[in-house]
Design brief:
The protein contains eight helices and seven strands. Strand 2, helix 5 and strand 3 form a beta-alpha-beta unit.
């Protein structure tokens, strides 16, 4: 038995619907490993239950696994808005979301979260960033003003298969995007943060109650 097997055996099981979605994602999409899966899905649900957000913003729906997992943890008046920029995923993802047990708690939008999310006019209590790694800094600077003070951002893939500490990947644009994001968040006085070495790295970021201006901090070279 591997340590990963042991961890999953001692973690609450994923619902059958999510297991079937995970299998379908891996069988029918090119990048199936991008789905959150059992362990991260249970963590996302529990974090939602702990934070008790009324509104969640998700950047990057992919197959809908993480959206459904988070929606499972919402209270009766909670809602999740999830954006997917790749319209080729819609035919796969929309039926899985709309037929899920939490469909009434999810609004699935095909479009760019950086332009469309601010137009919703919603103050979010929690956000999950899992989109294009090259744009993580831009996602962060878009999401942070939409988040109420004391709210949380979860950012996925922030260890990026360990590439963030491997000089062989210094010129890879996705690695560079994650590194710039991690460096920005680590020195941002508007937030406090911790990286969890879960799967590919999950950063928990809390917006402080007294945000400070950071002129030029979000600019990319």
């Amino acid at each position: 038995m591997t340590l990963d097997d042991y961890i999953l055996q001692h973690t609450s099981p994923e619902p059958d619907y999510l297991y079937r979605l995970w299998r379908a994602t891996n069988l029918q999409t090119v990048h199936g490993r991008m789905a959150s899966g059992h362990l991260q899905g249970r963590l996302l649900k529990m974090l939602v239950q702990m934070i008790r957000p009324r509104n969640i913003l998700e950047v990057g729906t992919f197959s809908g696994y993480s959206a459904i997992a988070m929606a499972e943890g919402l209270t009766a008046d909670g809602h999740l808005y999830t954006f997917e920029i790749n319209d080729e995923m819609e035919d796969f993802t929309r039926p899985w979301i709309e037929q899920s047990p939490v469909a009434d708690k999810i609004t699935f939008i095909i479009g760019d979260a950086m332009t469309e999310a601010p137009r919703l006019g919603i103050a979010f209590d929690m956000a999950f960033i899992d989109g294009d790694k090259r744009a993580y800094v831009e996602y962060y600077e878009t999401v942070l003003p939409l988040l109420r003070p004391g709210g949380f951002i979860l950012a996925d893939n922030t260890l990026w298969d360990g590439h963030v500490v491997d000089q062989a990947y210094d010129h890879d644009r996705q690695t560079a995007g994650i590194e710039q994001f991690n460096d920005l968040v680590a020195r941002d006085p508007r937030t406090e943060q911790v990286i969890l070495p879960l799967r590919d790295g999950l950063t928990l970021i809390r917006k402080t109650n007294t945000p400070l201006p950071m002129e030029g901090l979000g600019e990319r070279p």
